[in-house]
Structure formats: C-alpha cells, structure tokens
Design goal:
Lysozyme, 206 residues, two-stranded antiparallel ribbon, three-stranded antiparallel beta sheet, mainly alpha, globular, 8 helices
C-alpha cells in the first residue's frame, strides 16, 4: 500500500500553495480533478522528484523540479534519450513546443500546461461517461493519450489496459486518497472536497 514518504512531503510543501491556487481556479470546470489527484499524478510520475529513474545530468534527482525521465529509444530515434520532463514527466514527443520554452521545469507553470493541454481536453472528451468512469478515463488519458483510452471505452474494457503497467489510473486514484487524507490533516494545506467513492471491482474492469 502506498504511503507518502517524508521526502515527497518535503518537496510537495514547496509547491502546494501555488498548486492550491491553480486548482481552485479550475474547481468549477473540473470539480473531480482535485489537488489530491494532481499530487497523486506527480507521485506516480516521479515521486515528487525522488524516483530512481528521475535524473539530472545523469544523476538521480533529489526533489529537483528540472529532472528528466523515461530514458529510452523510441521508433525513429537513432539513440536513447530522455522523453519525460519535470515532475509531471511531460512528454517531449507530444509537447515539444512547451518543452522548448523551458517552463516545464517550473512546477506551477507545468501544472497549468497539463491542465489546459491534457486533462481538460480529456475531461471534455469523456463528458458523456458516468462520473467515476469519466474521472478514471481522464487520468488514464494523461498517461496513455485520450485516443487510446477512447478505444478501450468503445470496446467496453478497462481504460487502464491502455496505460503503463495497466494500472495507472487506479493507482493514481489510490494515491489520491492518501494525499487527500494528508492534505486535510498533517499537511494542513486544504480542506478538500471529498473524492468520489472507491471504484468497485466492476468499475475497475470497465
């Protein structure tokens, strides 16, 4: 079971005031995409900069916001390289324009970009889905792309079948519940709205 590490808490505290302000401005448009969800996405992607695969100049990052990850060689590339940038691991293949600005290394600006360019379009695309499925599909789309998630919805299969480890959205939702508790208690940052109830086994397979 996931627990927030002291290192994650330490780094998160630096950025939570900005994150809270930004998420409050989105509360009416995407009420289910809460600060807890965002914290959970960052945790899944980079453990807030402490993941072993998160590197700065080839060395493991120590909570720094300007690290890189997803080191691999993709089709058409002549050598391995980093594809994920910053806490959110924004993919250079899909978001080269934003990466080229350097704003990816400033977490608050990266969050604003993620909301506008990734999460909001997915949230709108899946607006006809039931609430729990819409939320899970939107989170899955952050990892796998809205098109791939839409294919799973069309087939009536679990959207996580399109994601890394086939568990991305479910894992983020599980982490979000842990963050929700911490943010409301020890973190002392917010009194967030309650998350939707845990997905049933049937909903996890949808």
């Amino acid at each position: 079971m996931y627990e927030i590490s002291d290192r994650e808490k330490q780094t998160a505290r630096l950025w939570l005031p900005d994150f809270k302000r930004i998420m409050e401005s989105w509360a009416d448009k995407m009420p289910d995409i809460t600060l807890s969800i965002i914290c959970a996405i960052v945790s899944r992607e980079t453990l807030w900069g402490w993941a072993s695969a998160y590197k700065i100049n080839g060395h493991r990052g120590e909570g720094d916001p300007d690290g890189r990850g997803d080191y691999s060689q993709r089709r058409g590339e002549d050598s391995p390289r980093y594809h994920g940038y910053g806490y959110f691991q924004i993919d250079i293949g899909s978001h080269q324009g934003f990466i080229s600005t350097g704003k990816w290394s400033i977490p608050s600006l990266a969050l604003e970009y993620v909301l506008n360019a990734v999460l909001w379009p997915a949230w709108e695309r899946f607006k006809n889905e039931p609430a729990a499925r819409r939320l899970k599909a939107t989170i899955a789309a952050y990892n796998a792309g809205a098109g791939n998630v839409a294919k799973q919805l069309k087939k009536g299969t679990d959207v996580d079948l399109a994601t890394t480890g086939r568990n991305y959205a479910a894992d983020v939702l599980d982490r979000a519940r842990v963050w929700d508790k911490w943010l409301s208690g020890e973190g002392g940052v917010i009194d967030p709205p309650p998350l939707p109830p845990p997905l049933t086994d049937a909903e996890r397979r949808e």
